[in-house]
Design brief:
This protein is of the alpha+beta class. It folds into 2 domains: 122 residues, Aminopeptidase; 44 residues, no CATH class. Helix content is 34%, strand content 26%. It has 6 helices and 7 strands, in the order βααβαββαβαββα. Strands 1-2-3-4-5-7-6 form a 7-stranded mixed beta sheet, sandwiched between helices. A hairpin with a 4-residue loop joins strand 6 and strand 7. Helix 4 runs antiparallel to helix 6. The longest helix has 17 residues. The two termini are 21 Å apart.
Length: 200
């Protein structure tokens, strides 16, 4: 692995404190350390994190005091029957607008495909126009609205839904989106693992 390689991996026990800190920065402390511990232990939870070696991170966009954060992003979904309920998708503020959110979302959708899930759903703030545009670009459709869903602000949430995850056309599109996303990122990436349904 080269020093400039972006790392995408499942959350590990050793990263618990780092992911809680990333949660605090991105989400205002949505989940506790105990909450992430439960996610680690749940067979129905898929939690991925993004990181890069410090030198590479600082080349692409540095944090305070020139130090890159241990984790740049996190994403999670719960596998419920045939559905992937995406519960978290967050990128460190210093690394916005670099394609990491889309890259992580596509990785979650690929994991859902690997699990044999048929659909994906999530909630998003009605004011988060950039996120809504990203989700709709990837085929999500608005399925409803939850009034006052976000307790701190009482802001409504849109319910977004995507079906046909096992459809060959979706798998083809997912592979294309992933390649385009890889080309955009300012880091090198490892090739898809051999067991990936999107591998050539």
């Amino acid at each position: 692995m080269t020093v400039s390689e972006l790392q995408l991996q499942p959350l590990t026990q050793a990263q618990l404190e780092a992911v809680v800190e990333l949660d605090r920065v991105c989400l205002g402390g949505l989940w506790t350390l105990e909450g992430y511990q439960r996610e680690l232990e749940s067979p129905n939870s898929e939690l991925l994190v993004l990181s890069v070696p410090s030198a590479a991170a600082n080349e692409a966009g540095s944090s305070q005091k020139g130090q890159s954060p241990p984790l740049l992003g996190l994403g999670c979904f719960w596998a419920i029957v045939e559905e992937a309920h995406i519960t978290l998708l967050a990128i460190h503020p210093d690394y916005h607008r670099q394609g990491l959110g889309q890259f992580l979302l596509l990785a979650l959708l690929e994991k859902a495909v690997q699990r044999g899930l048929e659909r994906a759903t999530l909630e998003v703030r009605v004011s988060n126009e950039a996120a809504i545009a990203l989700y709709q670009k990837l085929g999500f459709r608005i399925a409803g609205r939850r009034k006052g869903y976000y307790q701190k602000t009482q802001e409504d949430a849109l319910i977004l839904w995507l079906g046909g995850l096992q459809d060959p056309k979706f798998l083809q599109n997912l592979k294309i989106w992933q390649q385009k996303g890889r080309d955009r990122l300012p880091w090198k990436l490892p090739e898809n693992p051999q067991n990936s349904p999107l591998s050539p």
